[in-house]
Specification:
There is one protein chain. The protein is mostly helical. The chain has 2 domains: 199 residues; 113 residues, Homeodomain-like (Arc Repressor Mutant, subunit A), CATH 1.10.10.60. The protein contains 14 helices and no strands. The longest helix has 27 residues. The chain is elongated. The termini are far apart.
């Protein structure tokens, strides 16, 4: 088996792995539509980029339109990765129109390349810089931010550093036009995809394992213990993923059990417990002079606006009105 055949097979399987992950996130995994679509598109863009490297290596040529489309798909992965992390930690999971501004960079690069074929290599280098800027921002904003440390899984770290590795691999190809360096870059990129693929397969937060779809009495009791006795709702930013990890149960089962026990979704249940704690303190004479915002933060709310909104939803009145109404009856 010669080098060309071996490299083709090695990289071809990496492309197939990317496409498998794209299909899985697009059509199989149904945790969060927006987050799943962003990851699916990122893997699809990497499949395009590695395929481009393979074709250049094998046939030493692609049309300008093909190269431009690959560049567009590749650079779009950068803002997609940012939006994935942004909405991972955001209470709202709906796409905002103003986020479209992030895609102007890839479009500009695409237009430059498709109108000037002689600058193809330079434009791809600019694309790498564009991607690198986004990776640095994501690292500072989310990956290395202690605020989000407890919410990041092993998969998130591998995904982030994997993208960094791919930038290095593609930069080796663009900065060094020799066939040897181009081959090295292709091997590195394919290897990184293999690593991400196998990490995903072994990450419960990514690939659902086969569990019983039945909500057991044991699970219900464990949820009650975690929320009612251990008061996990007091943890700021507690997520169903964290609770599921603590209970060693899949998220969809925990969500189903919570709904069966409390008749509400996870967010409303957590807020309900928090509001109940605040209500108790509001009518306690020892807390009459305590700032309401401090009471909210003590039970796990991150912002006063989120607290007031939840309190209004739970009681149909403001915290101060609730406090005054109970003082009248005492």
């Amino acid at each position: 088996m010669n080098l060309v055949v071996a490299l083709t097979m090695f990289s071809g399987i990496a492309v197939s792995s990317c496409l498998f992950m794209s299909i899985y996130f697009f059509f199989v995994r149904k945790e969060n539509k927006f987050l799943d679509i962003t990851i699916g598109l990122i893997f699809f863009s990497m499949a395009m980029r590695i395929s481009k490297s393979m074709l250049i290596y094998l046939v030493n040529g692609m049309s300008l339109t093909q190269i431009s489309i690959v560049l567009l798909g590749y650079t779009i992965a950068a803002p997609l990765l940012l939006l994935h992390f942004k909405y991972l930690f955001s209470e709202s999971k709906k796409f905002k129109v103003y986020n479209l501004v992030h895609f102007l960079g890839p479009i500009v690069l695409f237009l430059i390349l498709i109108t000037d074929s002689y600058r193809a290599n330079d434009v791809y280098i600019w694309g790498n810089y564009f991607f690198l800027i986004y990776l640095i921002y994501i690292g500072v904003k989310y990956i290395f931010n202690s605020k989000y440390k407890s919410k990041l899984t092993k998969w998130h770290h591998y995904l982030y550093y994997g993208m960094f590795g791919l930038i290095i691999a593609f930069s080796i190809q663009n900065f060094s036009r020799g066939q040897t360096n181009y081959t090295i870059g292709l091997i590195i990129a394919s290897t990184i995809i293999y690593v991400l693929f196998f990490v995903a397969l072994n990450s419960p937060s990514v690939i659902k394992k086969k569990y019983s779809a039945k909500v057991t009495h044991e699970l219900i009791e464990n949820i009650k213990i975690a929320l009612e006795r251990d008061k996990m709702y007091l943890q700021s930013g507690i997520s169903i993923a964290q609770l599921s990890k603590t209970l060693d149960s899949p998220e969809y089962l925990v969500s189903k059990a919570i709904n069966a026990v409390y008749g509400k979704n996870f967010k409303d249940v957590i807020n309900g417990f928090r509001i109940a704690d605040v209500k108790t303190k509001l009518i306690n004479p020892n807390f009459l002079n305590e700032k309401i915002e401090n009471l909210a933060f003590d039970v796990g709310f991150n912002t006063s606006s989120a607290f007031y909104s939840a309190f209004k939803k739970e009681t149909s009145m403001s915290p101060r009105s609730y406090q005054k109404s109970h003082q009248k009856f005492e």
